[in-house]
Fold each of these.
Amino acid sequence: MRCKKWIALIMVSVLMISVLTGCATRSAKVKDEPTEFMAWQFVQAVVKQRMARPNNTVFPRYNYATIERDGNTFTVKAYVHTRDNDETVGLDFTVVVKYLGNDVFDEVSVELTPHE
């Protein structure tokens, strides 16, 4: 009889632990929420792809970029410097990207103009 009480106590303990850890796991899940910095990093990659010499591309610091957000759509405006034929060229850019979820962005539009 005493053995049955111990088994019952162990079963209740295991059940409580599984319930508590299950609740803790669910509450620890991170929301799939994009940030302006995530958009900035994606936009840098998009702009770099359009440069003649991507390895010679220099972006401003993050806080110098203008980032506007409308839901999951981000409009990023900034400038970039790159080397082209041994000359430094400055370009302004406006890139619109949309967050699709799961850390994935998609470019909507890209506009590059000579820096004045």
Note: The CA atoms of residues 44 and 80 lie 9 Å apart.
Amino acid sequence: MNTLYILEDDPLLGPTMQDLVELTQPDCKIELFTFFADFIAAIDANPPGAAIVDLNVPDRAGPDIVTELRRVFPGRPVFVYSGDADSLMRVRNLNLPRVTTGFKTESFNLVNDWLGHAFH
């Protein structure tokens, strides 16, 4: 069974993203996190196969999230999204392998496509 961690603090968007994954990947175990510290601790303890990450959560914001995530989660597929165009462009400019980015307004369509490739 594949595992996926989602970092999203919005009380509506997080569960909606989780529902989307469950619909498209029924054999996937999903854990939802609101705080970056909890997310990173879970990855350290039990790394998932992939992750979906919002760039703005209560205890961390911006491209540093991706830099820290890549340090503890190298080589795994990550989908990063944000409503902050500048932060998202800074992540894109890092040219990290297996990191896909998208604007929050288009994230559901992009995540659906990304999921088809993430666990392969």
Note: The chain has five helices and seven strands.
Amino acid sequence: MRDDHALEAALFDAVAENAISERDMKDLLHRMKSAPRAPRRDAVRCEIEVALRFIEAGSRVRAEVTGPQGRSVDLEVHTRDCIFAVHVKRLQVSPLPLGPLPIGFDGLASIPRPYLVGVEWLGSGEPEGHVLAAAREFLLGARIGDRLVLRNTASRRIGAIEIAAPRPPDPEGTPSIKIVAAGNANHAKALVRRAGRLLRRAYRQFVPDRENVIVLAGGGPSARDVVDRAVLGGHVERWDQFPPRHQRVAHGRNEEGLWQERRFERSHLVAWCPLAIPQGAIWIRESGVIPPAVIDTARRAVGAAPGPDAPSRITS
């Protein structure tokens, strides 16, 4: 994210381009500079950064707009004859560092099962033979959500392995496991709960007669998965549904997601705006509900990859 000087300079440029009013610029800078505590200051800086991203996407922005019933909107975005509300929440994600996994785990990818597998590795070198053997035996029969603690010969915990999500077969139709580095599973669940609280807090600020977009800002590459689970729910096997053709098990999402079970029905689009990496993501609840201009603007503002929205779309 830009430093304070760069944020101020960018806001002055936006005023010159008539993308934000001078009054809003002064208010944002005053709130940033006068914030009594660091967390509040960081939240305002985050709000300014997101406002600038929408301005750089070609929109005009109003800040801290008071809507009906006295509800405050962080940003009101004007783009292509369309006006929508944006609620910005700072996502503080501090996962454990994820270094490259030892090459010994690469052999597990030959197991013919269609899963994404997360490995938390605390060891200092290559995994011993009995560790890989235990991991292989576990992966041959485990289901989504199952987790195995890995231990050395002295029974000391040196990591864990977990079935994280389903994975489509390769182009030839052959299922295979993909191994990725992962942090502590309990820590990840706590982050998902934190993101869920931010989503619900933003929802309580929704205003009528406007499309309302939630933007969670911050975090590194692992934050995308945190937001995905907070919006859609964690991956689970669904024995109450028929599996797709040529598959034995149906996969779905659990109830921890904001959009599950027709809850929070006025929420149609959530965006993740990373501050440390260039590419963010958007999630669309239903097709045909949100004006295309809103989707396109949000996509460009957070740096989401262009293309079909089906992978992140949920109908509830």
Note: The first strand starts at residue 60 and ends at 66.
